[in-house]
Amino acid sequence: MSDPVVRIENVSKVYGGDRLRVEVLSDIDLEIEEGGFVALMGPSGSGKTTLLNLIAAVDRPTSGRVVVAGQDTTQLSESELAAWRHRNIGYIFQLYNLIPVLTAYENVELPLTLSRLSSADRRAKVETALEVVGLTDRSDHFPRELSGGQEQRVAIARAIVTDPTVLLADEPTGDLDAASAGSVLRLLERLNDEFEKTIVMVTHDPRAADHAHRFLHLDKGKLWSDPAESPPVAGSGGEG
Amino acid sequence: MRKLVWRNLLRNKRRTLFTVASLTMAVFLLCVLGALLQTFNPEETETSEKRVVVRHAVSLQFELPEAYWSRLETLEHVEAVSPLSWFGGIYKDTRPENFFAQFATDPETLLDVFQGMEIDPTTGEAWLAERRSFIAGRTLAEKHGWQVGDEIFLQGEIYPTDLSLVLRGTFTYPADESQENQIFFHHAYVEEALGNPGTVGTFWLRVDDLASVPLVIEAAEEMFENSEARVKAETEQAFAASFTEMLGNVELLFGAIGFAVVVSVFFITANTMAMAVRERLREISVLKTLGFGRRQILGGVTAESAVIGFLGGVLGVLFALLLVKAAARGLSGMFPLFSAMTLGPDVALLGLAAALGLGALSGFIPGYAMARRSIVEGLRKVG
Known about the structure:
The complex is a heterodimer of chains A (about 240) and B (about 375).
Chain A: E1 6-15, E2 22-32, E3 37-41, H1 48-56, E4 63-68, E5 71-72, H2 78-88, E6 89-92, H3 104-109, H4 119-132, H5 148-160, E7 166-170, H6 178-193, E8 198-202, H7 206-209, E9 214-219, E10 222-224
Parallel strand pairs in A: 3-8, 3-9, 6-7, 7-8
Antiparallel strand pairs in A: 1-2, 1-4, 4-5, 9-10
Helix pairs in contact in A: 4-5, 5-6
Chain B: H1 2-11, H2 13-40, H3 46-49, E1 51-56, E2 64-65, H4 68-73, E3 78-86, E4 90-91, E5 101-105, H5 107-113, E6 118-119, H6 121-129, E7 133-137, H7 138-144, E8 151-155, E9 163-172, E10 182-186, H8 187-193, E11 199-200, E12 202-207, H9 213-223, E13 231-235, H10 236-245, H11 250-279, H12 281-290, H13 294-331, H14 345-372, H15 375-380
Parallel strand pairs in B: 5-10, 7-9
Antiparallel strand pairs in B: 1-12, 1-13, 2-11, 3-5, 3-12, 4-8, 6-9, 7-10, 8-9
Helix pairs in contact in B: 1-13, 2-11, 2-13, 2-14, 11-14, 13-14
């Protein structure tokens, strides 16, 4: 059996100081195999996004170890973390978070400007990523000229253009209509099936979670992997 | 990243324009003040350094006895002495364009003291021969359209006499064209018109070499120490500087204005950049999530404000250059000093460097703070 691509050991995350202490994650253990598609569900404030942020190393745990792609990210400095994220993490946000002054093409190209690729190589990768998400014809459009679903697909292209080890999606369909949401979910499914991308998706929508192969449920800072123990609650809040 | 820097600059065009404009204004003021200071404190030329001015110790308003002339000629290291008295008469009317410097002098010794002055020998002889005649700087003669033989009338303001003078020719002063905005006429003619009071405004001495200048200054002051009219001797540059000193400590005043302008503009620019960066906190956090490091974020924001600074600097220098050129043309008639007014490369470079520094620092401070902010905190920001 191969090593898990994500391994979380005894991770706790506490916000606030002595007077106002909120334990968002409590002693979490989790392993995700390479090529897995995991849906992380739970009510609002349960710590879903916090857990995703810890995997992405944009946040640090209060205690415990987070090992992603063979690297204990809690041991890295800020500058090492930035370089590590660039190599290993593709992050898809609920609100797309495209840079408004850049075109779709330029948004997708942005992470590649950190690498030493030639402009021809960058172009090839950007075009491939836009082709995968089906937006080649929109490459010159600015985000304001795209629909929500198209913006999210550009954001997915941006997340996959560096061929990251793990794709993390935080409520990727939370701001989309049903048709656009379906299109984005099918795209994620394809990335997992065809390109064998490991995906961790935070969602509060059971229909979105249906596209995943594995369900995890977070509640009151605890992680449940068996829905029978703590079944996902339909209609719970979106913010993790 | 370069593309992002450029697009961010154009994101809010009006804000960028106003920020550039405020920096332009600051650099413009700095450069104009610098050019004025340089005009008031001109660099010494080799010949001017060897000239010493002797005047009344109390004030320029008091004249010196004409008899000092021959005594000053006896001083060691002095090669020539010529009297110069500021006549200050009205030509035509009191409008500024008709104002120019008028000096009573000795035609025989003037050119020995002012060796940079060039005059045709025939003109020199004609001027020397006729007591009512005068010579004019070429620039001034051209401005007023004077021809040889033309007669001008000066109404005395300082001296209780009017002068009627005939132009006998022009002179040039290649090393310093500002000197071409004046006229010279016979000291003896003024003396006669005044009833021979036997007085002179100032004496100008040419010293044999630079090292002897302090010795001549000391000797000249010592020579008349116990006289009724004690003298003050000084270099030509010190003499010129004494006029600007009458305005007070100009250097300090200009320095204080320049500093105040720079500091104010820094706060304005820094505040604008801080606002611009704060509005982009979420985007900065996204960039960090994509793998951009603190250094890249800081570099991007600093580069953005440095470009604003550079643009402001270049425009400020250009506008200052235009104003200085216009001032040199427009004011040289009234104030000959201004004909030499230029924007020196050192002042222009200082202005550019100040703008670039101000711009970069204005971006660096908020950029540094934002680069260090937590990604999670930035991503939570709505809007």
